Each structure stands twice: as structure tokens, then as C-alpha cells.
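Hey L., structure's done. Input below.
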Amino acid sequence: MHDIKFIRKSPDIFDESLKKRGENSKSLEIIALDAERRETIEKLEHLLSQRKMLSKEVGASAKNNDISANNTRGDIKKIKHEISQLEATLKDIEKNLDTILLSIPNLLSDDVPVGQSEMNNVEVYRWGNIKSFTFRPKEHFEVDATKNDINFEAAATVTGSRFAFLSKSTALLHRALTQYMLNTNIIESELTEFWTPVLVNEQSMFGTGQLPKFREDSYKTNEGLWLIPTAEVPLTNIGRNKIYTSEELPIRMTAATQCFRSEAGSAGKDTTGMIRQHQFEKVEMVTYCKPEYENFELERMTECAEKILKKLLIPFRKILLCSGDIGFGSKKTYDLEVWLPGQNSYREISSCSICGDFQSRRINIRYKSDRESKPLFISTLNGSGLAVGRCLIAVIENNQLEDGSVVIPEVLRPYMFNYKKIDNKGTLN
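Output:
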């Protein structure tokens, strides 16, 4: 949601930020609607004041048996009708204004590079050594150690396409990664763990910006609840209508959840393997902070995700997204992309974003610097720490051996009964 006062004050800055995203100017339309809204409110308040004054006159006339009270009652009836019409007009204006404001993406940070697509993203740095294999590395669903325990056919029979069953050592490896990510976030990065609902109401989906824009990419139940696309939704909405003290910030949260995306806009993309599934697991991070600390918190959050990859010894690169590739609700985003030798390419495993007050205005999350100060909107941030399925893919592909076995990264062994390898038959040893 956008600050209407800012748009009135700085329409050129507002439109310029939208232009960087490839969006049309919106300030003139918004300001015109806002002016109409304020004018209607002014008329409404004037009529309400008149009605109140005339009602007092009727009361006084009735005490004095003044026959002019009947004429005054007629005036009041007329004013009531006008009030009713103005209230309906105001409701329509506000609905139109909200519809426009809810459809406009977040304004960008000044340091976001201008570009039209992912080709214009800026690589910040790379970490890790890409292994030189003496054989052609396979994709995760081809590696002997795991291919029999990643079952797409059974899932297609039970549910449909873009679902998978994991079993035996592969299922254990997936669970180990989730536990390892959570423990790293809690113990080393000092995030607070939450267990969250995976069903949320429509208000919560609007609050984080999934609605109305991404309605077709989400799943809705017959009861009107929505399956979450990420734990960002429930975690960010925890603060709805709350006012925090300055001392309570920052608040840094993490949660592992199942996530659900219909991926309506991605037909034909990444349909092979586990890269793009309708149901997947993700460890999410969400932060509330004062606006002046949002850039510090973005670097910190991204480092939390990087820490996990570094300990797994998975090569990755950090990317600053350009204006044409950045998400709807984000003002600045870093992507982390892991190296997948089976695909011979880097693939996204985490996005860490500043949302500023874009979400907190929708959800009404504020803070006060002191007891006497006016409440201000907080900044929210969110990021993956990490997408578990994609991390599973990276672990399998980067640690495969020529005989089809997979070496278990050392940091994961305590979560896998201290075994060191999954052999080419899928057995732990």
C-alpha cells in the first residue's frame, strides 16, 4: 500500500519509480481521485453538521409548540437523503482508490539497477569452488543414490503433476536439511522460531501483497481460506494492528512450513524434476525493524542464508535484482543462486527483500520511538533460509560420485545418524 500524502507531495518521484519497473504513471489518476474523495468528505461533514443543528432546532421548537418544526423536519429529511447519496459516492470513490493503490507495486530503493529482465541483474559476488568432475554430472533425479526414492509417478497418480514422494534416505536427507537450517537460524543467527498455520484468511493475503495481483498463483479452499505460498504471510501478519515500542525492534523470526503455489504463470517452465513444485518446504525469515535499519537488516538476513550454504560447501552467487525482475512487494532484493552441476547453471535458492512500509501500511504494524511520539509504520523484510527442496537438489548434484553414490555433507551427518554416504542403491553407509 502506498502513502497518499507522499504521492500528493512528490508525484514525480512516485511516477519515476514506477517507470523504472516499466509501469505507467499513476499519480495524476490517484491525486484526482483523492481530491474527489476529500471534497466529498468535506461536503458530507457540512451536511452532518447541518443535520445536527436542525435536529436541535426541532427539539427546541417541539418544547415551545412551534409549528415551524414541521418545515425543519422536512429539511432534515432532505439532508438525510443527500447524506445517504454522498456516503454511497464516497464508498465508490474509496473503493476505486484502494483498487488502484493495491495494484501498484512497491517503490524501488535508489540503488536498485534499472533493467528490463533478469539479464540486467547485477552479480555482487561468487562464493565456493565449482567441482571439476571426471564424469558427466547428472541431475538430481538421475543420480543412482536418490533416483529410486524421488517418485514423481506415484505422486502424479495420487495428486497430479508437479508433486513428488520422497522416501528412505532421500526423505531423511530432506528432513535433515530442514532441521539443520532451523537450528542454524536459531542458534547461530539468533532468530526466533515459530510454528505457523499454513491456511490464512484473505485479509492476510492482501496484507503481504499476494492479493489481488497473484490470485491465480495461489490455492483457495471452499471455506475462503488460502494455502500459504510461504511462511512470509502468517509471520508478517502476526503484527496486525499492533504498536511496538522502539525497544522491541528489531524482531527477527523464522519458520519451516509447507508452501503451496499453483504457478499459473509458469506453464512449461522447469517441469522436469523438483525445481518447480506445487508443494514444497521452505525455511522462511521475516524481520520487523525501524525504517532506518532496513538496509542493515537486509545484509544481515542475506548473510543468514549464505551461512547455511557455506557450511554445506555449496557454490553460490549473490545477485542484486534489477527494476524489471524485482518482486511486486519488494523495494530491494538479493537473490542467492546455487550451482547445479547437473544443469551446468546457477539456480535461485533464496530471495531476501526489503518491503519497507509497503506491507506494514496494509497490515497496520507500527512502532513508537517513545511514549509521547506519534506511531510510525515499521519496515518489513522477508527471505528464504532456504528453499529445502532446491537445497536437496544442490546437495545431491554437488556431492555425487562417479559410481552413483552421494557424499553426505559433514554438517548434516549428525542429523542422519552419523552416516557419511548414500550408496548407489540408496542405502546409508
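The chain has a mean pLDDT of 94. Residues 27-63 form the longest helix (37 residues).

-- N.
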